[in-house]
Design brief:
Blueprint lengths: L1 H20 L4 H10 L5 H25 L5 H24 L2 H21 L12 H22 L6
Helix pairs in contact: 1-2, 2-3, 4-6
């Protein structure tokens, strides 16, 4: 029973802080599941991905009801992400736990740096022709799909 309560609290914290600061809940869930619940690195990554299916669907529903979804961008991102997420998960499972933990730590540092730099980055890089945007979305989807599968997190902010 205590373990269920702790799992619930971890999910609540991930959803709350993830929503407040705009990053995926897996960045919060994975370290908490490892540190508090003592899950293995691999199990925490897999568990996080399953939880993110439901949180992503819930969030997407709210944004969709408000008309705040670019469906073309979402479809293009998803197209290549779906193709590469399995490769990321296979790669993660091929790594020993300590190497995956180290990679996840580096990933967290990278995410923290991006969050710190975000206010200083230009809001836009200008208008691009549609075909350039298509390529950008496809490449971004491929990279984030692989990293999502490997790191046990949803799409990267």
């Amino acid at each position: 029973m205590k373990r269920h309560f702790i799992s619930f609290a971890i999910g609540l914290a991930a959803g709350t802080f993830g929503g407040l600061i705009g990053l995926g809940g897996g960045v919060i869930m994975v370290p908490l599941m490892i540190g508090i619940l003592k899950l293995s690195q691999h199990r925490a990554h897999g568990t996080s991905l399953v939880a993110l299916v439901f949180t992503g669907a819930g969030g997407a529903l709210i944004y969709g009801l408000r008309g705040d979804i670019d469906f073309l961008a979402a479809a293009l991102l998803a197209l290549t992400a779906v193709l590469t997420v399995r490769a990321g998960a296979h790669y993660a499972n091929a790594l020993p736990g300590w190497k995956l933990r180290r990679a996840f730590g580096i990933f967290l540092i990278f995410c923290a740096a991006l969050l710190a730099l975000k206010p200083h980055l230009p809001a836009t890089f200008g208008e691009h022709p549609v075909h350039v945007n298509v390529v950008i979305f496809l490449v971004t989807g491929a990279i984030t799909g692989f990293l999502s599968g490997m790191m046990g997190v949803g799409g990267l902010s």
